Amino acid sequence: MNALAAAALQSSELLPEALDISFKPIPAVLVIAMLALFLVVGYLFKVADTEGMWVAGRSIGNVENGMAIGANWMSAASFLGLAGLVALSGFYGLAFIIGWTAGYFVLLIFLAAQMRRFGKYTAPDFVGDRFNSDTARAMGALTTILIGFVYSVGQARGMGLVGLYVFGTDYVTMVVIMMAITVAYLSLSGMMGATKNMAVQYVILIVAFLAAVYVVGFTGDYSTVLPQIEYGALINDLNSEFSEPFANSSFFLWVATAFSLVFGTCGLPHVLVRFYTVENERTARHSTVWGLFFIMLLYWGAPALAAFGVDLYDASQYGPTYAAEGGMSGGEGDLIVVLAAQLSNLPTWFVGLVAAGGIAAAIATTAGLFITASSAVSHDIYTNIINPDATQREQVLVGRGTIVVLGAIVTLTALDPPALVGELVALAFSLAAIVLFPMFFLGLWWEKTNRQGALAGMSVGLLVWIAAVVNDLIVPFSDLYGQVFPAIGAALVGTPLVFAITIVVSRLTEEPPEDTKRMVRQCHSPEPMSRQESAEDVATDGGETPADD
């Protein structure tokens, strides 16, 4: 982990007086009403079959799916953590904005329509069927569960911190309550209810965030009509990291972080599953464009709000503490969005609206993560490997049980998280970029990628990522390894390595079956397919490609 992150973690506690941690009636009512709305929507769109549980019946339109992509994507790491990373690290934080945005262009061009034409339920489903391997399916499912776990810990931390501000209780209590509500509505609703809720959650979070950017900018005389640009006038007055490139990180780490986030975007199972929820490949493309637009609305303003928050904090009564300790704490950085509104002396109800947006963002992403992780266990491991004769009822029950168990594990880990919100999420991106993105890209664009190549590549990728995380966060064992494979940016070297291993092994071993090659070609066919049709159906005239192992 970089020096800045380490320093932030040494002082990750909030200053209670800085954030005014106390029970606030109006914000509390807003948050409770919002959470009740999520439960009602989840109940109204509850599902009982696997089609609705995992892919919402493939019935979501492009604008609604674009809103779901935006809400699914803009987690606590975006709503809270992105501005927090910029507040704590300045120029280095821009790597997160660039990485988390540019990845969607790669998705749009190379994966969105092709994934929809492949037409499965889950990311591990793609890996298992494309490479004719239950072992690859299991590794894909394991990676999906790991991503869901690491990513969700950051969301739980964000929910706990915001709940702490609104209800004035302790952090542990808020994490437990918020996660319990999230697990309850997800266990009930599945992907259909989660998608409907994501559209609602997007509206809440984007209204809250843009209101904060404009109102804080206007009341502080920082900006008028375009705070996303006007905040530049502040840069030279802030700490050196805002105006001095690489003041807190090396050029290599900046590039490595951006690279991991770009290609991690293209390997995240909860992002790719959004393409399976739409009717056809055309809708998949259009919803990606809408999603990028909705994401841009928040990302464009995050640096501005970070700059406003840092300046307000520096000028407040807490400024001397800030200067003496070399910067605000990690906890305050993670809540800079709420803190900026608080220090602007805005009405309590307005600050509560901003806080509610943070909770909505965290819950929306947690929903997508838990659904993909539960489908990996229920559909890919239990049904495809352990019990092929499982009924739909059994699959749904296993999926719901997985949500409950994963929720409990995430909650316990979030009580004492190992990193900041944005950094925790970045670790999940690094894993997705190293292990899953090469499989998705080669699986769709090179028909000769085979089972042996995929297994070799995924195995090496998992080992590289696990070693990087252990070296950075748990037990350091090599400075050289940490420099080449920083946990957050391990994909810069790791992803090309996995590509190379997969290609070489595929070249040295037997080519995949002809049915598999035809299936890959169908993913690029200009001929439209029906809602329930897949590339496998067309390539094999309705038959199935058997597993080789």
Describe the structure.
- With 549 residues, this protein is mostly helical.
- It is globular, with a radius of gyration of 23 Å.
- It is built from 27 helices and no strands.
- The chain has a single domain (24-429), classed as Sodium/glucose cotransporter, CATH 1.20.1730.
How does the overall form come out from the CA principal axes?
globular
Q: What is the number of domains?
A: 1
- CATH homologous group name: Sodium/glucose cotransporter
Number of strands: 0
The CATH topology comes to: Sodium/glucose cotransporter
Spans of at least 5 consecutive residues whose pLDDT stays below 50 are 1-16, 542-549
Number of helices: 27
Helix content percent band = over 70%
- Sheet having the most strands: none
Strand proportion = under 5%
Distance between the termini: 39 Å
Mean pLDDT: 81
CATH class equals: Mainly Alpha
What value does the Rg take, in angstroms? 23 Å
> Could you say which structural class the secondary elements and strand pairing correspond to?
mainly alpha
CATH architecture: Up-down Bundle
Q: How are helices and strands ordered from N to C? A: HHHHHHHHHHHHHHHHHHHHHHHHHHH
